[in-house]
Design goal:
The complex is a heterotrimer.
Chain A (H helix, E strand, L loop, with lengths): L1 E9 L5 E10 L4 E5 L6 H8 L7 E6 L2 E2 L5 H6 L1 E5 L10 H5 L1 H5 L4 H14 L16 H13 L5 E5 L7 H18 L2 E6 L2 H7 L2 E6 L3 E6 L1 H6 L4 H7 L3 H6 L19 E4 L5 E5 L4 E3 L9 H10 L4 E5 L5 E6 H18 L1
Parallel strand pairs in A: 3-8, 3-9, 6-7, 7-8
Antiparallel strand pairs in A: 1-2, 1-4, 4-5, 9-10, 11-12, 12-13, 14-15
Helix pairs in contact in A: 5-6, 12-13
Chain B lengths: L1 H12 L1 H4 L5 H33 L3 H13 L2 H12 L4 H24 L3 H9 L4 H31 L12 H10 L2 H29 L6
Chain C lengths: L4 H6 L1 H35 L1 H16 L2 H12 L3 H26 L2 H9 L4 H31 L12 H10 L2 H29 L8
Helix pairs in contact in C: 2-3, 2-5, 2-7, 3-5, 4-5, 5-7, 6-7, 7-9, 8-9
Classes of the chains: A alpha/beta, B mainly alpha, C mainly alpha.
Chain lengths: 344, 220, 213
């Protein structure tokens, strides 16, 4: 667990970057710090591994005050990933990943073996390990950055806008990978971004900062979306925050029934009972079947896009299990909002 | 004019002008010795200074103005001055050559250090490298191409300027220039100048080839 | 080593004329250097195949020692001021050419696109957009070339010219340090003043780069 207790940071030029911050970042969870530029979120992150020293207040990692530890040793025990990856251009990818194990005095062979293992963990080929960073794509470089941070198996991972410089498609992939990794590794992750969608997607807890280094609200994504503390937070979450909330809920609880027969549109299946398309008398339209793990938001989207107003539901193998009506989805969407408001 | 170059060719290809203690071979060796030693001393002074300024970010003003000052310093005047102060020795020549080379080395080393991507330095610190580890494992290797350029520029300038050793009665290829001027022997003057230019160009080409080979993995 | 102040007092006229002669040699060289390097730089900037050749050739010129350049010119122009100026000009060319090409390269492609899109012809774009925006880098080259020339004039003392450099030969031959010290100090002073003047010129020429008051 990481604890901020009345932490204040004023830079020598007089600007206050972080104002009287008290915050807990739970063990094994992802805490996302969001806000527009200059709100102190990056400074907050950098105070955890003492890249920036607080002016007053205390920061504890695992119960120990960070300022009472040797800065270099502290940093070796905390993974650090930054935008543009900050990889060493003169070292191969493998040696980049081996940086911290080597600093910790592990032998070169052991460090490289560990690095090779991590290449696979982050979804890169062994061949990529022999290349130099500039020979990789932006997305691949970012994966190497994550692998390097994980090399010494630190309990805490600091990520400063790690996916800020890659295109939206790659960013979504990297976010998925991070969620998959986190399920396996359960690190305590502090993640800085200015993208609220990324925050909602990745965070177990989101802390919203306002210019001047003020923490405005810290809550789970569902709480935040359902009950923003003030207009600033509401504005920051955007006009579609109601829909964003639905992205947090899955379709699992929504009932399904057999596909109706005799309507204007029929769901056509192949011989393995997998949905092929919607068919009417004279035309065919595509179908996008959903699984129980898909979000209520995609269900809502599909219910509007589907010609029959019905969402086809399938199991993990893609075999049809039933259909759900637009009305059922609407009802659950409404319930989800009510629940979130009451629970929060 | 044509006659002059024909005689120059004869002088350069004549075996006799290469042999002996005032032969080209010996003068060439002297010239290289002065140049390399002066550059080495300058590197011993300039490199640590440039690295220190680049690493700490303190004294950048010095590094920038040193270059300008170095260019403004009249080498001939400096040699004569140290010569008059210290008497007949190689000291004035080395002082002048080192003074010429140090600014080029310091400014290029400093430029190389400041050109290192701040994100990379931040990442290095963030992974838990100590100051000297950041300097020697990250900054120095990344600044090396520019540092090498500085050393190369310094060496070329020193080779070109080492002719002045002969001005205060020492050897090197400058001997031919000054003796030739004194004896109104234009062939000898030209011969000396051409030899110095060839040495400078060859060294420059060889060192840049070496540089390209050493840093072939780097991006532009 | 002491300075003979009375010698300085007795030779103020000589010192003034040597200083002016020194300055004139350096300035003429920089003037011709700029005159020659500007069109060459435009060619190197626009015609890619010629770029490597021009820059490479000027780099080789730079490796030739200054004394050698003067001496090599002797058969052509003899022991004259012309030799001094040509030699110095050759030396300034390298710095000026490299900086001017770099300056032109540094003009953002978008700005040139915008000028073109608004119907500006290439020559006009060059004169009203590219040169002004490249000016800071070009001026940096002019400053280096000027300081370098001022320092190098004294090398021409070997071929009987050399402005303040003559003080070095004089002091050396008579084993008398005062003229040497005066020569070194005046040379550096000239360089510093010329450099400061050029900074002022650049400030006036590029109002868009000043910090807002």
């Amino acid at each position: 667990m990481i604890q901020f207790d009345a932490v204040h940071k004023r830079f020598p030029n007089g600007t206050t970057a972080v104002h009287d911050l008290s915050l807990e970042m739970p063990e094994g969870g992802v805490t996302v710090l969001v806000g527009s530029s200059g709100c102190g979120k990056t400074t907050t992150l950098r105070m955890i591994n003492r890249m920036v020293e607080p002016t007053s207040g205390t920061i504890r990692v695992g119960g120990k005050d960070v300022t009472r530890q040797d800065a270099a040793e502290l940093r070796r025990s905390i993974g650090y990933v930054i935008q543009q990856s900050g990889l060493f251009p003169h070292r191969t990818v493998l040696d980049n990943i081996a940086t911290v194990p080597l600093l910790l005095g592990h032998g070169r062979r052991r460090a490289r073996a560990r690095a090779a293992e991590l290449l696979e963990t982050v979804g890169l080929t062994a061949e990529a390990g022999k290349r130099y960073p500039h020979q990789l794509s932006g997305g691949q470089q970012q994966r190497v950055g994550v692998a390097r941070a994980l090399a010494a198996d630190p309990p805490v991972l600091l990520m400063d806008e790690p996916f800020g410089a890659v295109d939206p498609v790659v960013r979504t992939q990297l976010q998925d990978e991070l969620l998959r990794l986190q399920k396996e590794l359960s690190k305590t992750i502090v993640f800085v971004t200015h993208d609220i969608d990324e925050a909602v997607r990745l965070g177990d807890q989101i802390a919203i900062f306002r210019t001047g280094g003020h923490l405005v609200q810290c809550a789970t994504p569902a709480e935040l979306l359902a009950r923003p503390a003030d207009d600033f937070v509401a504005d920051f979450l955007g006009a579609e925050r109601g829909l964003k909330l639905l992205s947090l809920k899955t379709l699992a609880a929504v009932p399904q029934g057999p596909a109706p027969e005799g309507g204007a549109w029929t769901l056509v299946l192949d011989e393995a009972d997998k949905p092929l398309h919607w068919a009417s008398k004279d035309t065919e339209l595509p179908v996008r079947p959903l699984k129980d793990t898909d979000s209520l938001l995609s269900a809502l989207n599909e219910s509007v896009a589907s010609p029959a107003g019905l969402v086809a539901r399938v199991d993990a193998d893609g075999v049809l299990t039933g259909v759900t009506s637009r009305d059922d989805i609407h009802e659950h969407a409404g319930q989800a909002h009510t629940e979130a408001r009451v629970a929060a | 004019m044509f006659e002059l170059f024909k005689n120059l060719g004869k002088w350069l290809t004549n075996g006799a002008s290469w042999a002996g203690s005032d032969g080209i071979a010996h003068r060439l060796a002297e010239h290289l010795q002065y140049s390399l030693l002066a550059t080495l001393i300058a590197a011993a002074i300039g490199l640590p200074l440039g690295l220190l300024i680049g690493h700490t970010g303190k004294g950048a003003f010095v590094a920038i103005n040193l270059a300008s000052f170095g260019r403004a310093l009249p080498t001939v005047g400096l040699v004569v001055l140290v010569f008059l102060a210290g008497g007949l020795s190689m000291l004035p020549v080395y002082v002048a050559l080192v003074a010429l080379a140090v600014p080029a080395i310091v400014t290029n080393t400093y430029a190389g250090m400041t050109a290192v991507d701040p994100d990379v330095k931040d990442a290095a610190r963030g992974q838990g490298m100590r100051g000297h580890q950041v300097l020697f494992q990250v900054e120095l290797p990344l600044a090396l191409p520019l540092i090498m350029t500085g050393l190369r520029l310094a060496l070329i300038q020193v080779v070109a300027t080492a002719t002045i050793a002969a001005y205060v009665s020492f050897g090197g290829l400058g001997r031919y220039v000054f003796d030739g001027l004194a004896q109104r022997d234009l062939v000898q003057v030209l011969g000396g100048a051409v030899l110095v230019a060839v040495v400078a160009v060859v060294l420059d080409l060889a060192l840049s080839a070496l540089q390209r080979f050493l840093f072939r993995h780097r991006t532009a | 080593m002491t300075i003979d102040w009375s010698w300085i007092g007795d030779h103020t006229d000589d010192l003034t004329s040597l200083t002016l002669s020194h300055l004139q040699a350096a300035m003429t060289a920089v003037f011709f250097g700029v005159l020659i390097s500007l069109p060459l730089a435009v060619i190197a900037h626009r015609v890619r195949p010629l770029r490597g050749f021009l820059l490479g050739f000027s780099n080789i010129l730079f490796t030739i020692p200054s004394i050698a350049i003067f001496v090599l010119l002797l058969p052509i122009s003899g022991l004259t001021r012309t030799t001094t100026v040509i030699g110095l000009t050759v030396y300034t060319l390298v710095v000026l050419l490299r900086n001017t090409v770099e300056g032109l390269d540094s003009v953002p492609a978008k700005t040139k696109e915008a000028a073109k899109a608004m119907g500006t012809r290439p020559l006009r774009t060059l004169l009203t957009v590219e040169f002004p925006l490249a000016l800071p880098v070009i001026m940096a080259g002019v400053r280096i070339a000027t300081v370098m020339s001022i320092s190098l004039v004294s090398v021409a003392t070997y071929i009987g010219d050399g402005g303040l450099g003559q003080l070095f030969t004089d002091g050396f031959q008579r084993n008398f340090p005062t003229p040497v010290i005066v020569g070194v100090v005046l040379t550096i002073l000239l360089a510093v003043v010329a450099d400061a003047l050029l900074v002022a010129v650049q400030y006036v020429l590029t109002p868009w780069r000043r910090r807002r008051a």
